[in-house]
Amino acid sequence: MPRKARTSSEFRDALLKHLTYTMGKDPEHAQFFDWRMALSHAIRDRMVDHWVASTRKTYEQDGKRVYYLSMEFLIGRLLEDGIFNLDMVEEVKEALDHFGMDMRTILNDEPDAALGNGGLGRLAACFLDSLSTIGCPAMGYGIRYENGLFKQSFVDGRQVESPETWLQEPHPWEFERPEVRFTLGFGGDVIYENGKTLWRPAELIQAEAFDTPIIGWQGKWANTLRLWAGRAVDPFDLGLFNAGDFAAAAEHEALARTISRVLYPEDSNEAGKELRLKQEFFFSAASIRDILRRFDSQHDDIRMLPKKVAIQLNDTHPAIAGPEMLRILHDERGLSFEDALEIVHGCMNYTNHTLLPEALERWDERLFGRLLPRHLQIIDRIDDAHYKAHPHRTLSARSDGQVKMGELSFIVANRVNGVSALHTDLMKKTVFRELHELHPDRIVNETNGVTPRRWLHSCNPGLSRLITDTIGEGWVDDLEQLERLEPLIGDKAWIERFETVKSDNKQALASYVAQTHGVKLNTEAMFDVQIKRMHEYKRQHLNILEAIAHWQEIKDNPNGDWTPRVKIFAGKAAQGYHFAKDIIRLINDVAKLVNADAATRDYLQVIFLPNYNVTLAERLIPAADLSEQISTAGKEASGTGNMKFALNGALTVGTLDGANVEIRERVGPENFFLFGMLADEVMQRRMIHDHAQQAINADPRLARALNALRDGTFSPEDPGRYTHIADNLTWSDYFLVCSDFSDYWRAQREVDEAYRNPEKWAEMAALNVARSGWFSSDRTIRGYMCDIWGAESLLA
Ligand code: 26Q
Question: Pocket of ligand 1, candidates 315, 360, 572: which has the most ligand atoms within 8 Å of its Cβ, to mutate?
Fold first, then answer.
């Protein structure tokens, strides 16, 4: 249906109908919640038309389908996304206006769907958006966690976690599919019967599907996100109940549900946890069965599978999907092991997101064998087959008493990809060096991207409007059109409009921070933002040490001509990651002292905003002047926040790490503040046993800042609080904070200098916008479709 064909009064009626018949309220008594639900249902109705049409077309065309298996989908809010993708902003505003409701207030009532930890989960969500925008027939598979990523608050500056409960109120976007259920097993034995090998699991559980429509730009296409929830096979034991044991009667169900209860809140692998492995098998096995069932409904020849199905493993978390598919084809359907392996290999692909050794998944083979005895045997056979083909090597998925999910994924996959040029290059040279030598064509690069619908059009309406006024609306699904802004950057009137947008966004953020946290930010100052998971390799401590040194220097000369800055941090630390949590506390303690210092507060403010999530990122990124991307070179696989900032007109201070390298190439080195060692220099530097002390001795500013950690400046009531951080940086400093400090300081002073020339700064920022079009996840997905999946768009 043409999108403007329905009049706004029609939409108003639809809204009122849902308020009345779905929510059972009359407008007089409706709460924000009721309005949000009514609006969500009215919007959802519009999505469903497109969704049904897309599903029908996918079946009719019978092309190759893409399945994206991911333990995480960090979606954020869906209502605003839906309204923007359906291009219904004005209609919705008008309708709500009619009832005296404000759209912003309603949208802000929605909780985030936080089914992910960070970059990997958010990437999966951007990919879903792009797959639908492009019209690629695809489906996302994951877990319907009842509790998403924990909520973070601060008590005396310390991180405190509490459960996140997004499903406590009704979730209007999902469709429960009680008819789509699979029974899965764990444990038990492997038996041999009539020449066949069969697995007889001891414990059974059901996976039930919940579907969410994912609508693309202007509703031209919609795919499905299918999330699995754990259910008991035999939910309620009436015998026990009648015998009076009420708790035991419901126990099955409670146990079954724990499998989809919580998201593991780690962004790197801590020692193998049984429940985590169960979750991985649970959703991978359910997804594989669903994929095979759908294939079978349209085809009889299983050998056609690689022509019709491409499966993408989002990191190794769903790697067990490979052995499970093999088990079904070989054990259950009777294909030879070799044929089964060839089919599986033809379908599977694997994306690696990290080179950090501690984040590569490995399972103790005893634990693995206890839960998945048959899969352990299958993994051995995969190793055997690989060894037969490449006898001169002994690389294997199972060795040293462990099951190595990275090796397993590599061996099973048809294509293996990294997420930025540098990362892919390092994969070939480090973790997968030997496997890459055996399979030199297997590794490809697909540099990450972000969806411009959410990360520009919807989160930054001011900039979106300016761009559309200048070059039309085509950029929203063809982001490289932003290049056409470049000629305007010399135009004084245009650049003034560009500056006004940024300054309005800063005002908006400042009023939000004033309202929610009671802190008044200086909007004349540069907004310098570092937002991401807390991790030593991301080096939030480098940033705060520089802030401390800067503060000390301002105090030495309070009448100096300083460039005012507001340093904004946000990010969660894994519960068990004590060092990261101490960095949060340090930043909060520094903020407390510095913000209260009358001598410096006009020049330097520091704030750590609690509970970083997608929605907070949507507020912060449009308001940023400076983006901090300062990881130790070689450690950040790609980064995607870096792209969002550049696209919203922030300049980057950053190392040559991950996608920073490609961002700098594209926006131009003169529009990027580079500092720090390169990846190979980092490796060299670590060979010097006293690298940190050398750096400290050479830089009195660094020495003084570290001293302030030691002498209790920021924790007078507990002077020893930060000694261990200073000690760590002085005596070990694996992430080379000290070694990069001086160059970081230099880059920051160049940033100060540049900010003092507002016209020049605005030009540089606008060039960042104009040249960031390549970082659209639409471009990334086209790359996967062409290089990895061999899939085609079904849009005319
Ligand atoms: C593994 C085992 C057990 C428990 C948890 C995990 C686990 C969970 C999440 C391991 C890793 C993750 C997340 C990794 C991640 O977010 N990586 C980021 O991926 C982004 C998208 O490619 C990149 O841009 C980032 O550079 C990378 O850090």
Answer: 315
Angle between helices 723-731 and 691-698 (to 10 degrees): 110
pLDDT band for position 242 (cuts 50, 70, 90): confident
HEC string for 563-611: CCEEEEEECCCCCCCHHHHHHHHHHHHHHHHHHCCCCCCCCEEEEEECC
Judgement on whether residues 695 and 602 belong to the same structural domain of the protein = yes
User: Which residue segment(s) compose the domain that 324 sits in?
Assistant: 62-77+112-448+781-789
The answer to whether residues 249 and 171 belong to one domain is: yes
Candidate from 266, 316, 402 with most ligand 1 atoms within 8 A of CB, to mutate: 266
Query: 492 catalytic, yes or no?
Result: no
Q: Is residue 645 part of a domain?
A: yes
> Per residue in 456-493, pLDDT tens?
999 999 999 999 999 999 999 999 999 999 999 999 99
Q: What is the CATH number of the domain that holds 665?
A: 3.40.50.2000
Determine the distance separating the centroid of ligand 1 and the alpha carbon of 392, expressed in angstroms.
33
Q: Is 533 a residue of the active site?
A: yes
Confidence of residue 6 (pLDDT cuts 50, 70, 90): low
Q: Are residues 785 and 671 in the same domain?
A: no
Task: Give pLDDT tens digits for 300-313.
Answer: 999 999 999 999 99
Q: How far is the CA of 578 from the centre of ligand 1 (A)?
A: 19
pLDDT tens for 178-203 read 999 999 999 999 999 988 999 999 99
| Ligand 1 centre distance from Cα of residue 537 (Å) | 13
What is the distance in A from the centroid of ligand 1 to the CA of 626? Answer: 25
Atom of ligand 1 nearest to the CA of 273: 3
Same domain, 430 and 533: no
pLDDT in tens, 747-780: 999 999 999 999 999 999 999 999 999 999 999 9
Q: Do the Cβ atoms of 74 and 114 come closer than 8 Å?
A: yes
User: pLDDT digits over 281-291, tens only?
Assistant: 999 999 999 99
Q: Which of 583, 533, 228, 529 is nearest to 359 (CA)?
A: 533
Residues 342, 208, single domain; the answer is yes
Same domain, residue pair 298 and 350: yes
Question: Comparing C-alpha atoms, which of 471, 735, 462 is closest to residue 583?
Answer: 735
Q: Which of 72, 117, 280 to mutate to test the pocket of ligand 1 (most atoms within 8 A of CB)?
A: 117
Mean pLDDT, residues 110-122: 96
Is residue 574 within 8 A of residue 265, CB to CB? The reply is yes
Any domain includes 606: yes
Residues framing ligand 1 (Cβ under 6 A): 117-120, 123, 264, 266-269, 276, 353-354, 359, 361, 419, 448, 636-640, 658
**What's the per-residue H, E or C state across 626-681?**
EEEECCCCCCCCCCCHHHHHHHCCCEEEECCCCCHHHHHHHHCHHHCEECCCCHHH
- Nearest CA residue ID for atom 2, ligand 1: 269
Same domain? For 599 and 704 the reply is yes
Co-location of 150 and 250 in the same domain: yes
**ipTM exceeding cut-off 0.90 for this assembly:** yes
Say how many domains are in the chain: 2
